[in-house]
Amino acid sequence: MRLFNIGLLIFTLGGLASGLALSPDMLIISRIMQGIGSAFLITLSVTILTDNLPRSVLGTWLGINQIAWRIGALLGLTLSGIIIDLLGWRWVYLFHAPVGFAALIWSLRTLREAYRPPREACIDIPGFALFTLFLFSTAIGLTLMLNAAKWISEIMLLMILASILLSLFIIHERRGRCRALDLSIFRNLQFTGSIIAQLLYAMGFGGSMTLLVIFFEILESYSASLTGLLITPFELSFLIFGILGGRISDKRGFEMPTIAGLSLAAAGLLTLSRISASTSPSSIIAAIILLGAGAGLFVAPNTSSIMTSVPPDKRGVASAIRTLSFNIGFLLSLNIAVISLVQVTSYDVASRLIIAEGMMNAEASITASSLAKAILGAFQAQAAIMLAGIPFSLLRMILGKNLRKPQRPKRTLP
After folding, report:
1. Do residues 213 and 328 share a domain?
2. The pTM is what?
């Protein structure tokens, strides 16, 4: 709880500093500060739920937790536009202060520590530094890879550096007594299977909404408000099936909803890969609802699978790896989207399309047919990646049956 409250305080102070920033550099630093605080909150919120709830209802409340994040994001996006129009951009961040301090006071008064570590915790600063540099090098290398012709030398150097850093990190973690990441956690097949399924889900899902915005606003010439309205069914479907997925995982186990979720999400992406200018809005909305239903069914049960597969003293690390796998998958998904667009236009134009999420006029060099082909091809690739996560859920199901199978007592000789 103490780390959660510290993260909440850092996030709140970062928002206040962002609103009072006097230069772009100060704004960047304060936003990094907010990112650090939000990392505490995202990771520890799941850990707190797992520590304080019985396993019989954990999936349901993890579903409610993910819905709270989605509703907060929707409200934030909606209210931020109103705030900017009325008061200016600074107040988007300044409003973080009263809300954040109110949440901190409530947290201090109501939340209590449910888990006590068996021994005094240690901080592996060298391991943390090595792993952070590895992730940074990998992320920059993947980003530059989208324009490999221009950055080939830098990409090779970054990937070599990332490999060296990862090797040093593994050596350090295997030899050190104080570990940032206990690598033995990956021997647990339920945990490893769930993490891989999460990574593949994020790779399949991450760029889908951005591609839809580009399709609607550039190819269909829809307004931003109409585009937002067409994407809203995804959020509603996600919210409904998020709770349903959690309830099913509590009653029937996490295997069935995760497999069904990945299958439905892949079906939604495949349906989107067949849309065209002649496709009716109702058909597109049906595909979006299908994608939202699959995403909602998958997330809470898979999170429950991750968190219940490890002992209490490793839940914080497990939650951090879960968040990390999603963020890496999300980044790779955006890379897939850009790579698809690069086939029909320049890297600069593709990057602007992704960053602005379609809110720009397509250059004359991009024909509607070629852009549509690139977007639909990306949907197909994302569907295939989503389906690739199913075998890992099947592995968990087989493992779970073996673990639940009663052991026959051994006969002893008279």
Report:
1. yes
2. 0.77
